[in-house]
Amino acid sequence: DELWKAIERVELKHSGVALDTVISESGANFSAGQRQLICLARAIVRNNKILIMDEATANVDQHTDSLIQTTIRQAFKDCTVITIAHRINTIIDCDRVLVMDHGQAVEFGPPHELLGQKDGHFAQMVEQTGPTMSSKLRKQAKDSYNQKRAVESQKSD
Predict the structure, then answer these.
(1) Lowest-confidence range among 19-23, 38-42, 128-132?
(2) Dihedral sign, Cα of residue 36, residue 40, residue 41, residue 45
(3) Would you say the C-alpha torsion 123, 114, 131, 89 has a positive or negative sign?
(4) Inter-helix orientation angle 32-46/2-9, to 10°
(5) From which residue to which does any coiled coil extend (predicted)?
(6) Has domain 1-85 been given CATH number 3.40.50.300?
(7) How many Cβ atoms from other residues are within 10 Å of residue 75's Cβ?
(8) Rounded distance, CA 48 to CA 40, Å?
(9) Rounded distance, CA 91 to CA 69, Å?
(10) Residues 85-116: tens digit of each pLDDT
(11) Which of 3, 50, 132, 141 has its CA 20 to 30 A from that of 98?
(12) Residue 55: in which H helix or E strand, if any?
């Protein structure tokens, strides 16, 4: 029952995946997106408190990317999630971002605060996405930051 709930949560229930489905070496009989979703379902079943995602959505379509991001935010909201990513939209609503440059940590903090540093690495990366995307990312970061502060404020009251 727990396995089916996890499979359902990552929307693989109606994809032909069954509990007796044979998974070939390296999951070659599944798409990259399906392999990521199976790994996510496994992490849900294990009830992991720390989840490390290394370019988890780099080779998947937009729908699967969105599904993975939504599942992570819901299923692991009370966990530590370390996300290694090149796409800024993947991490824009995280609690904190560590920006690396040539193997060195150059910035660390909430995305919204990092975006306030006009000459900062993170702010410059966001600006390089173009005016439309930059505006969208800034809004996402601000909204997420404000929402988290509101929740923290309610907890302390």
Answers:
(1) 19-23
(2) positive
(3) positive
(4) 140
(5) none
(6) yes
(7) 20
(8) 10
(9) 9
(10) 888 988 999 999 999 999 999 999 999 999 99
(11) 132
(12) none
Is this prediction's pTM over 0.70? yes
Q: Is the dihedral of CA 28, 82, 97, 112 positive or negative?
A: positive
Tokens of 149: 């502060």
Q: Return the amino acid letter for 44.
A: I
Residue 16 pLDDT class (50, 70, 90 cuts) = low
DSSP notation for 81-108: EEEE-S-HHHHTTSS-EEEEETTEEEEE
Please state, in angstroms and rounded to a whole number, the distance separating the CA atoms of residues 49 and 75: 10
Strands 104-109 and 97-101 turn out to be antiparallel
- Cα within 13 Å of Cα(13), Cβ side: 11
Please check the confidence at residue 138 and state whether its pLDDT lies above 70.
yes
Asked if residue 120 has pLDDT above 80, the reply is yes
Q: Are strands 104-109 and 80-84 parallel, antiparallel or unpaired?
A: unpaired
Here the tokens at position 61 are 């379509």
117-139 b/e with 16+ CB inside 10 Å = b?
Answer: eeebebbebbeeeeeeebeebbe
